Amino acid sequence: MISFEDIEKAWKRIKGIAIQTPVIHSHYFSEVSGNDVYFKLENLQRTGSFKVRGAANKLKVLKQKGKKEVITASAGNHAQGVAFSAKSLGMKATIVMPKNATREKILATKSYGGKVLLYGKNFGEALEKALEISKQNDIAFIHPYDDELVIAGQGTIGLELADKSFDYVFVPVGGGGLISGVAIALKEQTDAKIIGVECKPFSSMALSLKNGRIIKVKPKKVIADGIAVPEIGKIPFEICKEYVDGVYAIDEKYFKKAIFLLLQRSKLVVEGAGAAGVAFLLSKEFKKLKIKNRRICILISGGNINKEELKKLL
Amino acid sequence: MISFEDIEKAWKRIKGIAIQTPVIHSHYFSEVSGNDVYFKLENLQRTGSFKVRGAANKLKVLKQKGKKEVITASAGNHAQGVAFSAKSLGMKATIVMPKNATREKILATKSYGGKVLLYGKNFGEALEKALEISKQNDIAFIHPYDDELVIAGQGTIGLELADKSFDYVFVPVGGGGLISGVAIALKEQTDAKIIGVECKPFSSMALSLKNGRIIKVKPKKVIADGIAVPEIGKIPFEICKEYVDGVYAIDEKYFKKAIFLLLQRSKLVVEGAGAAGVAFLLSKEFKKLKIKNRRICILISGGNINKEELKKLL
After folding, report:
1. How confident is the model at residue A51, as a pLDDT?
2. Distance from CA of A174 to the nearest CA of B (A)
């Protein structure tokens, strides 16, 4: 199991690659919800998402062990996190992306120095290819969430929130790596309740916690593509059973509203997955909880939304 | 003349109304320019722009003198700054706006509790009306930039930058209130060079400094509406003569490019005027200066761009 000390070590390791992002107060969302609402702005993180934290921690440990090359599969933020970390550390990274990955994400990954290999019709096929190359050539495979060093890296966000006395922290949930790290970091030092937010129909974490075993859901296209993960990771499942106070799967319509309001009222570009916490704040599920006058931190996990989607929402 | 101590006093006064905004490092714009580039994020300020700082300082002093009501004329950020400050202080604010003010800005001003009076075809006519009401009813008029307390309030941004050892600070220039306050605050404590940025054809500050007297320019519709001021203020002119190291008027095309890149690469919603410093960084005027390896702070002054303009730029 990952310890608090693992996260402290990660925090030292990733300095100079990832930055400490700001925490700001949101007047608008405080008024709207009757609470004191803060944002942790990982959309302002390098590469536009938190993923660089976990990737940097993993890659730095591999580098210390003499490794010079890594491989991963991703059509999104993890690709950019791995590519940017590898470049910063003078390592080589190959990213297998499915053939339907957007031009924007391919270009961004390449711009950070990643070698992009287009393969397969979907993420599953790209993943298989990456694992195959990894085995055949003895190149380390970087899993986006089911990896202790990656989770410890994401947990560094929790360290940056620990001194702020939050009653609640809302965290987007896809594979579960982010919330696992953040929960370990915060539960050690604070009394904050850790709440996970998924986008329907991707309620794998909520269902798995309820059923006591990992449940896989049927995929569908949603705006929160960064957390559209049909099946959570094994390591995250074990951590979340112990540390997480609640997980809610929210309708996509609240995500769209959240992205728009973040743009218009908070002047922030936030992608679907990154808007999960605000979507929850606007949802009927949150209303039912009758949470008032609390200090709430919403983790805005990323800002990599493409131009066309943004245009549609405006 | 405004002193450094006036700005320190302002900083204490506006606490609880304005917030201390973050300073973040921009990896992208550092790489692009060959410098170490930071952003001071006043687009994340309450009301979406720095204007609330000056308004809060002025109104708090008036309140201490027993005033309960103020009036101003504005079609933009100053309107929201005055309305929000008045509400926070339990005062009454009337904002005279020209009849062609956008629905968005009118609604925003009303949402902060301001009483909106629509009058006249343009800002000049609205201003005349506001001054007339101010005189007839003995209600304090709040000038957007030609006022020592307003300038001292804007200067509080400089205090929040003083410990960061910047070589350069780039500041948008409209009427000149913002750069005046920031320059006084920074020149007292640091060696930073203060550079003003205007949007062509609104080069009143650059021309006035060159000619040793205030020069008025002919207006035109530009995307940087917040700094589209045909004639700088008298107090700012006197301050800038002494404290400002250079003022550049930049073509509108660089502003458009800056807004787009801030959105796409930096995940920030920035209005035309707010993007002035980035526009300068991208301009041929900046290239000519051959500035490299310096610590540059770009003041992002506001984020109140309307939906339609944003859509057009995407």
Report:
1. 98
2. 21
Q: pLDDT (tens digit, 9 = 90+) per residue, B165-218?
A: 999 999 999 999 999 999 999 998 999 999 999 999 999 999 999 999 999 999
Domain A4-49+147-313 has CATH 1.20.1250.20: no
How far is residue B226's CA from residue B221's CA, in Å, rounded to a whole number?
11
Taking one residue from A and the other from B, the number of pairs with CB-CB distance under 8 angstroms is 49
Separation in Å, CA A44 to CA A19, A111, B31, B72, B266: 9, 18, 16, 36, 7
Q: A43: which 2 tokens?
A: 């959309």
Query: For residues B68 and A251, what is the distance between their CA atoms, to the nearest angstrom?
Result: 46
Three-state SS across A66-86?
CCCEEEEECCCHHHHHHHHHH
**Segment B29-85, tens digit of pLDDT:** 999 999 999 999 999 999 999 999 999 999 999 999 999 999 999 978 999 999 999
Terminal Cα distance for chain B, rounded: 44
- Assign residue A73 a region: left if phi > 0, alpha if psi is -120 to 50, beta otherwise? beta
Q: Which two tokens stand for residue A17?
A: 């690659």
Tell which residue, B34, B297, B268, has the closest CA to residue B165: B297
Q: Which residues from chain A sit within 8 angstroms of residue B269, using beta carbons?
A: 263, 267-269
Query: B36: number of CA atoms within 13 Å, CB side?
Result: 8
pLDDT of residue A101 exceeding 90, the answer is no
Indicate the pairing of strand B92-97 with strand B69-73.
parallel
With CA atoms as reference, the chain B residue closest to A268 would be B268
Known active-site residue A266: no
**Which residue spans of chain B are classified as CATH 3.40.50.1100?**
4-49+147-313, 51-141
CB B126 within 8 A of CB B133: no
Q: Which of A80, A267, A300, A301 to mutate to test the interface with B (most CBs of B within 10 A)?
A: A267
3-state secondary structure of A18: strand
Q: How confident is the model at residue B103 (pLDDT cuts 50, 70, 90)?
A: confident
**Topology (CATH level 3) of domain B51-141:** Rossmann fold (3.40.50)
Q: What are phi and psi of B264, to 5 degrees?
A: -75, -45
Distance in Å, alpha carbon of B283 to nearest chain A alpha carbon: 23
The nearest alpha carbon in chain A to B265 belongs to A48
Closest residue to A24, CB basis, from B22, B25, B314: B22
Mutate to test the interface with A, among B267, B306, B307 (most CBs of A within 10 A): B267
Catalytic one of A51, A58, A105, A193? A51
| A44/B264 CB distance under 8 A | no
